[in-house]
């Protein structure tokens, strides 16, 4: 008997609850860590957010009809990477933000030095989490090595950090759409690609399936970022929970700036269609959640 | 025929040359990385230093009579971790240093934002290097997982970053020798312990040998830091290449502050003796270089 799938909203809510429960105990309580450092790490880790990346880790494993429990450590790892990148991005030397998601940023609460260290510690701890899928769920060392290699590349200089550096350098003048795409692909897509591949690897994906997950991630990552640009321009401040038109005010170039709002919307739709197509063609046993998540991201209003 | 060992000075010089040669090509040239980010990473990576930690990785592998070639990626990894920690420590929000080893610090050359990102990228790239010992030298995935687990703990919140946080918090008043020892053990010893264990793991060390390497590292790491405190107090500015008595001027508590200079010297000797003893007792086939390195560190005048 085939049970009907819950709606994607319910699926996301359930996963967020589960992920946040696991995050709470993700730094071993028996470890001796200076209290303010531990607090600073937990403050940002538990500060909410969409939890999109860890959900994608779990959904990718489920698309292969695997129990997603073994993928949970990698899901937590990617949220740690995402969180550290936000802490460092918010620093005075970087974007100098006082608030994120309505809460004071890490350095406003714990000071700059501790915020830098909390970011460093979360980045390092992400790799500890990856190994836990071997320790707790019997994932092989070869798979761990593959995942560590993916993460070090996609979150590192040729990946997320490179995208962040390009973004910062670009504030002195991005002049071409190609430069903007480079920033989006690395700053956003790379970690999404990692999430999908990590879930896939843990569930024993074939090379063909891994390539499809990578293409899916690249497309929805770019679509996500263009959608962000669009929402910043025409979104609802209430739903977004932040002021709109900040890109215009900060003179940041965006997709709508280069190709207009209608073409940007069309691009989001095209990328979502291509993303879904690659999953369908690669023959996953249970692709539904991934396909629903792609649509969910395209239709979001915040 | 047993060839006589070169002096330890020659051994160190040869290893430094080799390590610096390998560091030059440690970030793949085919990777697309924003030029200033790559430059900032290489600037600090190639800015000199004792290269003590990578030498210990190689020496530990050699103590097990292994060819140290397979240990080189891990040696480069630990130097990347050490380098990132210096870049972040030098930031205005941390120690606010303009010079290190006679050269401008990273943020003075590349700006604070790029220095933060260069540190993040080096930390992430260290894990990439660890996996290269599997890709290039056939080290097993299980060993890679063990090394990644060690590194994530010993360089993370319960290790080096925790030591750095405690040091920073302690500047508001370390009152007990135990607190100072906590700082030294984590800020300095932990990464030295990692270096020795990584070399040991790659060379197939037994659990008994790994435990001996860990004890050796803990002891020489603490001795190294106490020796630093002593040299800061009574060393030769010319040889040290930096002003002495900086701890006194900065009102930093040190081992000599707590127990006096003679007792501090005796402590360095005792720790060195204990370190060597643990190596001798664990039965390494070629322990000479590790033993010589312990003596070399104890007798150093800079």
Automatic annotation (TrEMBL), chains A, B:
Keywords: Isoprene biosynthesis, Magnesium, Metal-binding, Transferase. Belongs to the FPP/GGPP synthase family. This is Farnesyl diphosphate synthase. GO terms for molecular function: (2E,6E)-farnesyl diphosphate synthase activity; metal ion binding. InterPro entries: Isoprenoid_synthase_dom_sf (IPR008949), Polyprenyl_synt (IPR000092), Polyprenyl_synt_CS (IPR033749), Prenyl_diphosphate_synthase (IPR053378). It catalyses: isopentenyl diphosphate + (2E)-geranyl diphosphate = (2E,6E)-farnesyl diphosphate + diphosphate. Its EC number is 2.5.1.10. Transmembrane segments: none annotated. NCBIfam families: FPPsyn. Its cofactor is Mg(2+). CDD domains: Trans_IPPS_HT. GO terms for biological process: terpenoid biosynthetic process. Pfam families: polyprenyl_synt. GO terms for cellular component: cytoplasm. It comes from Paenibacillus naphthalenovorans.
